[in-house]
Amino acid sequence: MAMWQGAMDNRGFQQGSFSSFQSSSSDEDLMDIPGTAMDFSMRDDVPPLDRELEGNKTYNGGGIGSSNRIMDFLEEPIPGVGTYDDFNTIDWVREKSRDRDRHREITNKSKESTWALIHSVSDAFSGWLLMLLIGLLSGSLAGLIDISAHWMTDLKEGICTGGFWFNHEHCCWNSEHVTFEERDKCPEWNSWSQLIISTDQGAFAYIVNYFMYVLWALLFAFLAVSLVKVFAPYACGSGIPEIKTILSGFIIRGYLGKWTLVIKTITLVLAVSSGLSLGKEGPLVHVACCCGNILCHCFNKYRKNEAKRREVLSAAAAAGVSVAFGAPIGGVLFSLEEVSYYFPLKTLWRSFFAALVAAFTLRSINPFGNSRLVLFYVEFHTPWHLFELVPFIVLGIFGGLWGALFIRTNIAWCRKRKTTQLGKYPVIEVLVVTAITAILAFPNEYTRMSTSELISELFNDCGLLDSSKLCDYENYFNTSKGGELPDRPAGAGVYSAMWQLALTLILKIVITIFTFGMKIPSGLFIPSMAVGAIAGRLLGVGMEQLAYYHHDWGIFNSWCSQGADCITPGLYAMVGAAACLGGVTRMTVSLVVIMFELTGGLEYIVPLMAAAMTSKWVADALGREGIYDAHIRLNGYPFLEAKEEFSHKTLAMDVMKPRRNDPLLTVLTQDSMTVEDVETIISETTYSGFPVVVSRESQRLVGFVLRRDLIISIENARKKQDGVVSTSIIYFTEHSPPMPPYTPPTLKLRNILDLSPFTVTDLTPMEIVVDIFRKLGLRQCLVTHNGRLLGIITKKDVLKHIAQMANQDPDSILFN
């Protein structure tokens, strides 16, 4: 028989010490959840199917019990019982049941005294207070990251002599020697060549600036990868695949801990400043979830319940996207559509509140000095025409093709990194990619600037005061006769910018494939948006010039008169950005809302929707998985996708363990095994739990007991209950079995037994079993035939079966 194995290395059962199983008090570990005692009347020899319930029975997470609690060998609940090992899945049903019991107890006590009533009110308010704290902390950290990254990005090109803490823009704000046309040039801002060789002109000055740019990029990247490798290996990547897995009920200790938060915040600034093709938006979701997890420990309600904690993490993910894009509503929808597994209505309201507070906090900090939450906020005023849906859909097709290409190539490269020697040298890999990126980026002004600034430039709708090359139109400041809008023939600057943007597009497409997945914090939102924005701007300028020079064509003459400002290239850039981001992540609703909140224009929702849906259809036709789902599968995380349909006609008996020629199912009997027998089973197996039956002959099911609970309970009994030895009988029944005289004391472990495990018959279709696992978040399900226990189906078995049916490698479900 093959039960579900935890991915942790189980060292087996040792009688000496079980300290390794006690819950740590650090914020990255699970806290102790007291075990709940049960009272369920059942005669020793009566199978569970024939039992009768007495009194007021309630399901309390461990099984069915009465309000009269029984104490076994301890007056207090056993510390550690009911908690989970690392790399294990939580029991959603048990956790939700515990929370209902806790809430019922508080409600009943609130009627007894004023203090209990105050406690009840504070318990109800604690969720909103926690959301307030998460929003404040997430917004503050996002502001700190934005300001620091902006300053360090400019540090690669020079420094402000008026105050080294000023970035380039702030340095020149207060200067009295700056002109409007050259507002980025002021005597207070010195390039590295000016500081080192006192001149900014000539080939040698260019080489000095080039060298310093590459040197700073390498230094920032080296610091980032070194800090991640030494202090917090979990701080690498975007974090969204792991957060999706954690929200589905999996436990990865330390992933949302304080060290991960500190190192991720520092290294995210370094990684973005290094100029690599990555963004900070995805990692900000991880940072916000770390804030949520740490703050949960201030409230018992969330500290001691894993299911409630995941509701908080869903809201924290919304706050993370809110501060990343300045889109509170988009953040809530992102959490609902993309990352959350369990999202009740209460969580929706609290997510909205957390996202609101986070956005307000970031707005108060005003990191970009423009009273906006993001660097690339834009406003368009020119309406779009129905014909333009054609190029918008073309951008959607490009986004879908780019998304499918990126996912395939990036996953292939990440698999190569995992399976070859390349993965053993993360520092060298990061330095090589950084060096290549910096060397290729410096000569081109559009690759030299930060990706957020590039997107801002591409989104920009050219006005009278713009001095950018993208806005270098001939006769731009002259109005034509008859009061018509300005003519817009492209000037030399626009044509030069088009060539540079085409080279930038090629570099971004190639280098992002190798950058995402390295051992540094790396988001994918911004690089994907940059690729789409470049493609969109190129197409937009092409359409604009076509409309200008051929306004008499049939497709233009009905709505675009000569010299009129008909096409907005910045809008094409925004639609392209949405299309490419949708192609990579497969987001739809949340993506459109995020882009809408970025522009503040309701009239552009239709172009965005058309591009997002086209992108998703094209990408889905070439591969069903988004980038985050692909990385979940690559890493072997036990994530049961709720969006996929299971349509195969297999039965529970085809999937359950043991199979026909396997050894018999390992079970415990309810009242005939000694401590030594149980210790032997624990030491010889690595299963996460064991079914309890009336007897080996009858195989009539009594319940299910977890391995961790068994180990902790036996260790506790040896320490605190006199006379418990290896020959002591362990029983899971209500009353002690009759024992001959002079036998050692028995050990009652009924309080750790789940008396209502989920069961299905052997002929249950697997599509129903898969649905049960998805919707109830089960860890395992027992299989019976005519009331007799036949086998067990674990979450791992279900995932392996789904992989097998999809012609994938079932052993890819690694659980580590």
UniProtKB/TrEMBL annotation:
GO biological process: endocytosis; renal system process
Keyword rRNA-binding recorded: no
Keywords on record: Antiport, ATP-binding, CBS domain, Cell membrane, Chloride, Endosome, Golgi apparatus, Ion transport, Membrane, Nucleotide-binding, Repeat, Transmembrane, Transmembrane helix, Transport, Ubl conjugation
Transmembrane region(s): 125-145, 210-235, 312-336, 386-407, 427-444, 497-517, 524-543, 571-596
Chain segments carrying region Disordered: 1-28
Listed Low complexity bias regions: 12-25
Main location: membrane
Cellular component terms (Gene Ontology): apical part of cell; cytosol; early endosome; endosome membrane; Golgi membrane; plasma membrane; synaptic vesicle
MF (Gene Ontology): antiporter activity; ATP binding; identical protein binding; voltage-gated chloride channel activity
UniProt xrefs under InterPro entries: CBS_dom, CBS_dom_sf, Cl-channel_core, Cl_channel-5, ClC
Location(s), subcellular: Cell membrane; Endosome membrane; Golgi apparatus membrane; Membrane
Bilayer disposition of the protein: Multi-pass membrane protein
Catalyzed reaction equations: 2 chloride(in) + H(+)(out) = 2 chloride(out) + H(+)(in)
UniProt keyword Disulfide bond present: no
Pfam families cross-referenced by the UniProt entry: CBS, Voltage_CLC
Stretches assigned to the CBS domain: 656-720, 752-812
Family, similarity comment: Belongs to the chloride channel (TC 2.A.49) family. ClC-5/CLCN5 subfamily.
Role, per record: Proton-coupled chloride transporter. Functions as antiport system and exchanges chloride ions against protons. Important for normal acidification of the endosome lumen. May play an important role in renal tubular function. The CLC channel family contains both chloride channels and proton-coupled anion transporters that exchange chloride or another anion for protons. The absence of conserved gating glutamate residues is typical for family members that function as channels.
Subunit structure: Interacts with NEDD4 and NEDD4L.
Protein name, entry field: Chloride channel protein
UniProt organism field: Jaculus jaculus
Gene name for this UniProt entry: Clcn5
